[in-house]
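--- STAGE predict ---
source: upstream dedup step, 1 unique chain passed
mode: sequence only
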Amino acid sequence: MKTPFSALRSSFLAAAAAAAATASGSGFSLFQGDASGCADASKSIAVGGRVGDMFYNPAVLAGSTAGYAVQAGSFFTRPHLKIEGVDPYTGKKYRTSGKKKWFAIPHAYFAAALSDDVVFGLGLFSRIGLGDEFPAGWFGRYNSTKVDFATYDVSPALAWRATDWLTVGAGLTLQYFDIVLEQDVDAAGVAGLRPYNSPSPSPYDVHQRIHGSDDCAVGWDLGVKLDPVERLHLGLAYHSEVTARAKGHVRYDVPAPIRAAYPGFFGDTRAHGKITEPEYWMAAAVYDLTERLSLGVNVTRSGWSSWDKLEIHEDEAFLPGHDVLGADKKWDDVWRFSAGGSYKLSDEWTAMASFTWDDSPINRKHADYIVPADTREIYAVGLSWERGPWAVDGMYFFENINDCSFGGRPAEGVFSGRYTAGFSHAFAFSVSRQF
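--- STAGE serialize ---
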């Protein structure tokens, strides 16, 4: 029986995975903790003010409420990206793109002041997500036809204001992990009836679907907030690696002629694998130039060298000698830089803006269609309204994804080409209430 909670979790995972096709940061990290954080992450790391800022730095929870507070909202995006490739056997050029639609990544937070200096917080969000789906029969189908990869994170945290200038925080990440990978297998090519993984149409493609999940991967978070002198605010946060040990199954949709000719091949089976998500170091500085205007900078180091390979072990090989599925990734650790600020227009209204440069960890020698993206620039603006116990934050950003050229690896279903014309429009809102 599917409970309301499991239905909500499934919807959350599907939304987070699909939205992350180009809404994600480096690799397939998600930095969309709440609307104000999307518009000005420096303030969320070093100053706080919203319960959702615990997504970036658990230490800022200590300034989020004197009683109880809740916050909820969602991030919405419409990604666009084209992929070009060249048939290594005929020289024919191909171009395609994923499906164009709006997707959502929801978030929710709760905080309670346990004393004047200690605040407990609880966050529900997704820090990892990847999703894309390509048309049936597209030229890269032997590498990927669909990917849904997302986490559902439940994060309890505590923040303690030790002195007037020092606050520390710590928390846990309890994570549900879910992954779906789909691709076609060139059965005709395996049998030697045509060039292997030729992108030209074939009636003998076998469709492969891998599904795995981990019900409780665990990570941890630490944060520090410093106010060393008047008007200067500093924040530092660490989010640990999370290792998900997925278990699931592999299923095959096999054309009748292939099933008849090779009855012992392409059998459904159980499978397992391990994926280590990166650690993150976040640091920010904010300076209040006036009572109304604050400027800030922040930097994030993402440890994507943890994504060395994708390896899935089948209990029974779908072809002799093919009991391990996957490929080398060999990604790099990368940096994300952002600068922005906020201006208080009135007692109720505050405007925010920022620019972010987000490097790509992808090793071009191992680039594929599962993560079709590269370095990106993000231009964001936001607006906040506060009256009494209520606050509403809104944000819009435009994301430009740089073109990326790469060499072909026909044995893996990847052909010489590039990602091009990548961008996304996105907006977010968050509603907060103090009690």
